[in-house]
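cron nightly-structures :: item 1 of 1
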Amino acid sequence: MKKLITIALASCFALSGCFALAACGGGTDYDHTIVFYSSQGDALATVTEKAIEAFEAKYPGWKVEHSQPGGYDEVLDKVRKDLTGNLQPDLAYCYADHVAQYIESGKVVDMSKYLTNAESYSPSGTDKTVGRIGFTEEEVENFVPGYLAEGYAENFTGYAEAGLTKDALITLPFVKSTELLYYNPTALKALGYDNPPETWDELWKMCEEARQHKGWETCTPLGYDSEANWFITMAAQRGFEYTSADPANHYLFNNDGAAAWLAEIAEYHEKGYFTTQQEYNSYTSGLFIKGPENGGLIFCIGSSGGASNQAGTGFTTEVAPIPGSYRGDDKETVYANCISQGPSLVMLSGGNSVADPTEKEIMTFQFVKELLDIKFQAKFAKESGYNPMRTEVYDDEDYAIFLEGKDPETGDKLPAKSLVVSKAAKAATQLTNRFFTSPAFVGSSTARAQMTSVVQYAMLGTKPPEKALKDAYLACGGK
């Protein structure tokens, strides 16, 4: 855990607005309205309304305007556009590579000054008092370390030029997802296995046997929902390089280790062992739920946040961690790194003028605390399939019942879709020490997009691995 430093409050934040607010009335009191952008759909926005109601009940006279520009990319585009006109939101969903594009604006707030701040505060517009601006040290100790660590400025390039130190906390995790192995236990039994594969070697062996199984001639054993995630994860597991925070040398993926792995999967694809989202033109869960006897999959590697889509037809879906890898000739150590995704929260300053910028930061952080409240996190996790960012949530009575596959209200077994969400959430609790963080910089999202193409070119034989990697390197601006 990093040392968390409480510092004096600085007057550096201004209330932001958005076109939606302007459109629905020029009388918005920006001094007492927190603007929040997310990529939530209507169902999750309804859940988030509970946190908004809790905040507004605590601080009458203060409001939260929740705007949903679209998906993650649309949130990114909206924030970037708003930053050019000083109309940015007070709080926004983000991925790390999004924030890498916000840092240079100088508007990203260092939340370390609020995280454990024990001071009380009396905001204007209400007779209520903030009893403690930040969390207690004990509460912060129960944040999932791997999630919290993602938000420190040292993981981002350009932080020093923006006046931030490496210990600045520029994002806070909201909820997270990871990749999991969804599998058909009935099909595994037919192959003579009781347990899912723990290594890629074991998985490829099972795929070979599945292709030879009578009646499964049209079966593709494995589906992988994200080519980019696959490449990045295998770089972490097998030890070949992907990207670097070094501005002089960001792009490292054009290497022999990456080429060797791509050559392997090209061979496995030719044998019919797997497909991917881009090849299938949809999430491969659509194939997985059919079962191998109907031309479907036996294994699907996809997000824990999409677990509800993995409920099988004619079989009960089980969930396990993704397989791990050996490195070189070492067959004793299994590297089981897995990716961490899902929305974090970034606070932004310098929007529409307000009477007291410091107050706006403090009250925005109070809304952040509502989003990270244990009961709210438990409810959001149950509804979304994402994992909470606080370990205390797992001690919540209702959430604990949910993780056991039961309805917290009735005690009955969960319906199929909710049951898979429950299993995925439980499986993900085993993985908090396996998460890794890739450097975030302007251009890291380009590298990620290029990896989708690299995997496709290699597996389909459109380009040799070495050429696919070199072309991607040049497309990223490498020389």
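cron nightly-structures :: done
Residues 19-174+343-388 form a domain with the D-Maltodextrin-Binding Protein; domain 2 fold (CATH 3.40.190.10).
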